[in-house]
Task: inverse folding
């Protein structure tokens, strides 16, 4: 079996774990995601790795090195959004395993140990907060704040973890703070159109935008649509709409800084065509690599909420779901990746990531780098998400070279 066919078989095996009929649904801490995780652990053991699961459910597969030195880490995540695609997260985890298989094929023993990490609960789709597994590993997990997060069925994070034999009170024990780690590299699909549009094969990520997320509940007064005069209504949906439109205006003013804002969820309680909406919940995501620009959007959001509250006579309850800082990735790893791409004559582009990734938390533990491979039409978090196998293999070639470089005792990261 050639390398291309071997990798395709690996990716297909991962994506057979799916609870949906459309796209891939393998949501964190569900039967499908746990079965996939167990299958991946077996695959790593078959590659000769020592495999364990930490207290949050992160998988750590270790290939020993020649010497007792800090490990070099690579990986991503296996969970998906609802009705997502085959490539987001899965490519990074399977690419890491393919690198180890290649080293085995060549009989290469590195100086430093190499670890593959499959992070738990990277996606925010179930509980509204992203990268929980890498937060736990980086010592950033706040169990008091996060344990009561609920999914669309009212199941809390604590309950979902318990069903997977994981205790949220033990999550802090997953922290690797203070442990010597040489580097972490994450490979991922771009999830945007830039590489394909510019005909580049590798994106070298310079920094990662981080989100501030809110759940905003707007409470008015439900009333009959035919008997309530327009000037006597307390319409929660119109209040929510006004907030959403003003948020868009504010974000458009910050375009030069790459800041974006999205209202991705709007739920009307007890909605009916002939009832003035009395309660609406919206969920807001504001992100960017410039803290100052993002802060201006957040400040204006709060000002708008107060204005709408007074103007329409509504009660508005704001809950902050997460507030993460943008991160700049290792300059030394960026430069090393550039040298590798130039050596291999691979067209590349240095670029920021607008999406959050586990790499942003790993930067708290060690020098961190990230590479992108192209996404067809920039599509992601969608059943039609697609990346050419040949493009993934180019990414694996680069990832292998990066790992070999940093797993050598003579490589130094300042």
Result:
């Amino acid at each position: 079996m050639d390398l291309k066919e071997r990798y395709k078989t690996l990716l297909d095996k991962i994506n057979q774990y799916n609870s949906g009929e459309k796209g891939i649904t393998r949501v964190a801490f569900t039967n499908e995601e746990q079965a996939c995780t167990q299958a991946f652990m077996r695959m790593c053991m078959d590659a000769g790795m020592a495999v364990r699961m930490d207290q949050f459910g992160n998988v750590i597969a270790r290939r020993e090195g020649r010497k007792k030195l800090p490990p070099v880490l690579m990986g991503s995540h296996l969970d998906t959004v609802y009705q997502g695609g085959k490539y987001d997260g899965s490519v990074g985890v399977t690419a890491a395993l393919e690198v180890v298989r290649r080293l085995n094929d060549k009989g290469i023993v590195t100086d430093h140990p190499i670890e593959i990490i499959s992070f738990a609960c990277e996606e925010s789709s179930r509980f509204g907060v992203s990268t929980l597994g890498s937060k736990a590993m980086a010592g950033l997990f706040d169990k008091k704040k996060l344990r009561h997060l609920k999914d669309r069925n009212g199941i809390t994070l604590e309950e979902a973890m318990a069903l997977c034999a994981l205790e949220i009170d033990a999550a802090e024990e997953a922290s690797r703070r203070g442990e010597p780690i040489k580097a972490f590299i994450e490979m991922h699909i771009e999830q945007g159109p830039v590489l394909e549009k510019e005909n580049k094969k590798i994106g070298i990520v310079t920094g990662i935008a981080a989100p501030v997320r809110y759940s905003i509940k707007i409470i008015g007064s439900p009333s009959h649509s035919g008997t309530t005069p327009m000037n006597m209504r307390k319409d929660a949906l119109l209040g929510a709409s006004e907030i959403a439109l003003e948020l868009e205006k504010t974000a458009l003013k910050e375009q030069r800084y790459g800041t974006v804002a999205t209202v991705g969820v709007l739920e009307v309680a007890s909605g009916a065509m002939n009832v003035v909406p009395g309660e609406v919940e919206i969920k807001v995501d504001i992100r960017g690599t410039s803290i100052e620009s993002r802060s201006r959007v957040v400040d204006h959001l709060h000002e708008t909420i107060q204005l709408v509250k007074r103007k329409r006579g509504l009660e508005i309850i704001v809950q902050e779901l997460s507030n993460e800082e943008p991160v700049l990735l290792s300059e030394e790893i960026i430069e090393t990746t550039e040298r590798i791409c130039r050596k291999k004559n691979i067209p590349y582009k240095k670029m920021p990531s607008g999406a959050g990734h586990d790499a942003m938390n790993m930067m708290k533990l060690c020098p961190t780098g990230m590479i992108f491979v192209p996404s067809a039409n920039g599509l992601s978090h969608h059943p039609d998400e697609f990346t050419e196998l040949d493009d993934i293999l180019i990414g694996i070639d680069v990832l292998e070279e990066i790992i070999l470089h940093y797993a050598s005792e003579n490589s130094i990261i300042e």
User: Anything to note?
Assistant: The longest strand covers residues 210-219. The CA atoms of residues 2 and 371 lie 24 Å apart.
